[in-house]
Amino acid sequence: MASLSDETLRKILVQIQQTAIQSQRALNLTKQQTAAKDRERRILQLTIDEISGMEPDVNMYKGVGKMFVMVPRPEMEKDLKSQEKELTDDINGLNKKSKYLEKQFNDAQSQLRDIFNSAPRS
């Protein structure tokens, strides 16, 4: 550490701090997105459960813009299940991204700790 100038050391510290801040912000955003997708998926699961409990001859309607269109039950169930699968895939992707960002944030924090712990005491 003694071979680095004060200016170079300061630039390194600023860069590590910025990495930590960016990782923390991205992590918070990713957690919010995960929570929103999970909420959507739970609502979709409830809808699927309600539809499966209905009689087979009940008419199903799907909202399209400002109107409702009658949709055959198998098509409605297929659409809902595909939306649920898509949301599950999105949640899994966001969880992976969240783990990566947590690791990046923890690495930046440990680098800062190492720098301050190895700094010469005056």
Automatic annotation (TrEMBL):
It comes from the Eukaryota. One of its GO terms (molecular function) is unfolded protein binding. InterPro entries: PFD_beta-like, Prefoldin. Keywords: Chaperone, Coiled coil. Pfam families: Prefoldin_2. One of its GO terms (cellular component) is prefoldin complex. Residues 77-111 form a coiled coil. Belongs to the prefoldin subunit beta family. PANTHER family: PREFOLDIN SUBUNIT 1, PREFOLDIN SUBUNIT 1-RELATED. This is Prefoldin.
